[in-house]
Amino acid sequence: MSNETRKSETYFADQTMWGFVHRSFTKSMGYTEDDIKKPIIGICNTFSELNKCHSHFNELVEHVKRGVWQAGGTPMEFPTISLGEPYIKPTSMLLRNLMAMDTEEMMKAHPIDGVVLLGGCDKTVPAQLMAAASANIPSIILTGGPMLNGRLGGESLGACTDCYRFTLEHKAGNLNDAQLAEAENAICRSDGHCMVMGTASTMASIAEGLGMALPGCAAIPAVDSRRRHMSQMTGNRIVQLVKENLKPKDIMTKEAIENAITVTMASGGSTNSIIHMVAIAQRLGMKLPLETFDEISKRTPFLLNLRPSGQYQMEEYFEAGGVPSLMKELEPLLHGGCMTVTGKTSEENLMDVHVLNRKVIFPLAEPMEPDGGIAVLKGNLSPGGSLIKKTAVSKKFFQHKGKAVVFDSFEDMKKRIDDPNLDVDENSVLVLKNLGPKGAPGMPEEGQIPIPQKLLEKGVRDMVRISDGRISGTSYGTLVVHISPESAVGGPFGLIENGDEIKLDIHDRLLQLLVDEEELEKRKSKWVQTEPFYDRGYGLLFENTVLQSELGCDFDFLLPKELRDELKSSI
Ligand code: FES
Ligand code: MG
User: Fold this and answer.
1) Residue nearest atom 3 of ligand 1, based on CA coordinates
2) Dist. CA 420 → ligand 1 center (Å)
3) Where would one find the signal peptide in this protein (predicted)?
4) Quick check: CB of 121 below 6 Å from ligand 1?
């Protein structure tokens, strides 16, 4: 037990008029004199009817509370904003930093000694980890868990990898309206977040890999009774964390971050997670260059046979043992000494863990692929870096040269992509500009540029597509994303013109515009900055302060001051 005065004691043991007010107002809600002497545990409930992935959180919270009471703490539930991917326009990414700010300030401003953060949908867990890093009070992430597998005609369906497939086949004329509606009804059949290894599952795995969630938390289906137990254990454990005074900065060390990246690479995790990991590391005062991801990717075999890069989904992952079993397999590549929210090291957590299904979690010695899922590309088109999820790429495009077909914005692409007169063939490189953090704004997940109708009808299902935007973690295809600097800040990507030749070489980690320097200089001198999107409010704050993707798309003023000063030249 730490000797430090708990934050709640400074409120409830206070002998001034304010202590009177705190005690009186709190007791009026039914808490007793005894309750307010115990560690006060904030439970951040992000239930929202605008967020399908958190629809069951009110129930989970009750189990967390039970755990808190049992361990001798007093739970107090509070809300923050909640971000559900499907509704938020122009993109949920615009609001991740707002949620991180909301969460951090709620954690800091109240008489709470520790926090359980309930997250699930894509941007929520990153926002909460960023907040926990900055607030640095004892915290545990409790993810809501994935949906059960969708089912239709004996087939296992995954959101939203199959959402793309069904829409595509409908557009190609292979599915009628009734069949499409049937698929819509079958794909999401329970509470929970997307059940492929998309961003939500990746971030839940990262929370475990970092040591910020209890082992096994990520993969338990949302509606499995064992998630109730996990919720209760999490409530139980946060009280001990307060007593041990174990804080996020003690857990999220450089080594823990490397462990989380190793888990991501072995899982075929989402490219979005790279932006989030960089943002989390920076909140902790650490720089996390894209090269670190590439180095770890090169030395980490791809082991997890989950969609969109493999065959199965989170439900089978859970049955195979979940993240602890994957980490057991990866043990030789992990730092074993990292402290975790269990109060034990990552190595201690993995004692007695086994892999229960080798079709889902491959052996380290016989991996699905010898290296990791994500490659970082450099070259004259993306001096700041760009990403490709190579496990979801068609093998024929690993080395490719093609002529650019350029779209200046998402709207321009939507207008022209299906035009029968569009000068495009299956070897073309589709280029979509102005999708970046400032340009779109908010770096939306529009990087999965649709295949033009006329090529779809010819049976084409993949092409090389490049953008300064993001893709959903559930996407598949040859998609180069996060090109930095983005076109809206004058990056070379903005200078591509129709017919330019572009070279992609994933083995050599290269994305190159085959246009000579002189010509590029000429184009640069004619380049004009687009008008800002917002003239007031949060959008303006976002546009003025958001960092480029390789710096995590955080706001510059949210970085610790020392790091901000150090990075001054690049922000
Ligand atoms: Fe929430 Fe996919 S929509 S995780
Ligand atoms: Mg998503």
Assistant:
1) 85
2) 34
3) none
4) yes
